[in-house]
Structures are given as C-alpha cells and as structure tokens.
Amino acid sequence: MTGAAANTDVVLATRDVHMAFGGLVVFEKLNFELRRGERHAIIGPNGAGKTTFVSLVTGLLTPRSGDVLFNGAVITGLSPQQRVKAGLARTFQINTLFRGLNPLESVVLALCEREGRAGVSPRGEPRRPREDLARRGSPGAHCSSTMQSSGVNHATTRWPAL
User: Both 110 and 64 in a single domain?
Assistant: First the structure.
C-alpha cells in the first residue's frame, strides 16, 4: 500500500521524537511505526530507553519535540487518562493492584471505568467506593449489571485498542 491508504494501517507512531533528561539524550529524531496486527518486542540493556519509550507513548513523559500518533491522530499533548479513553493503555508488572478482587471483578471494574461508570450505580446514582464495598462486599459490585448482561465474552471485546 502507498499514500493515505497505508497510513490507516498504522496504529501507533512516533515522528521525530526527541527526549532528554538534562544533558542525557535518550532519543533524537525517533521514528517508529506499529501497523495493525503487528507485534514488536522492545529489548535492550538497562538504561537503553525502553521504559522511557513506553512512558512517552502512554503520556507519562512528554518529548522535548516531535509527536506521538495513535490511529493517525496526534496524541502528544493528551494526558495518560485521555489516552486510555482513546484506547491506548499501559499495564504494569503489578499483580495485586486490587487486593481482595478476583480476576473477573478486576476486569469489570476496568470496563466500568472505561465506560465512565466506575463510582456510579446501575441506576446512574453516584457511589462512594468505601460505602459500596461495605454494602455489597466488592468494589466492582456496582457494575454487576455489566457483568451479568455481558459476561466475560463481552468484556474481552472492550479491551483497549493497544
């Protein structure tokens, strides 16, 4: 493919990204493309810039210059939360984020946040997590309608795009 049609296949890209910490230049004119369906591994020794790259893409760090694009849109100025809402999410190697929640409840809680329903009852009323926990025994219970109406199959279709 060439021209504009080829760009529709690019899910994630960086254009001339420059990142430095003081005098230490991490990236200079970094150009990267990830096309739909591709998988890439980012490897290198400690200090090579792997975490810095992921932090730039997900909005935890801002480049000195250049742009990050997601599905063709410039997202350089978006916060990490805005990027998650757009479908770009980062995971950390922490397996106990929600102590006391089983895996399904953790997924439901994440889905509710993505849909803007975390902290809201099925009837649309505001909820306080501690009150909800005390009343129902699970922080994710106020989104039980999502779990009941959609099940895990629906939940897996709601994952971020990247």
Answer: no
Q: Check: pTM over 0.85? Answer yes or no.
A: no
Q: Tokens 């994440």 map to which residue?
A: 110
pLDDT tens digit string along 6-20?
456 999 999 999 999
**Is 85 part of any domain?**
no
Contact assessment for residue 55 and residue 13, using Cβ atoms and an 8 Å cutoff: no
**Distance between CA atoms of residues 25 and 106, nearest Å:** 38
Pairwise CA distance, residues 57 & 13, whole Å = 9
Q: What is the DSSP string of 82-137?
A: HHHHHT-----S-S-TTTT--HHHHHHHHHHHHTT-TTB-TTS-B--HHHHHHHHS
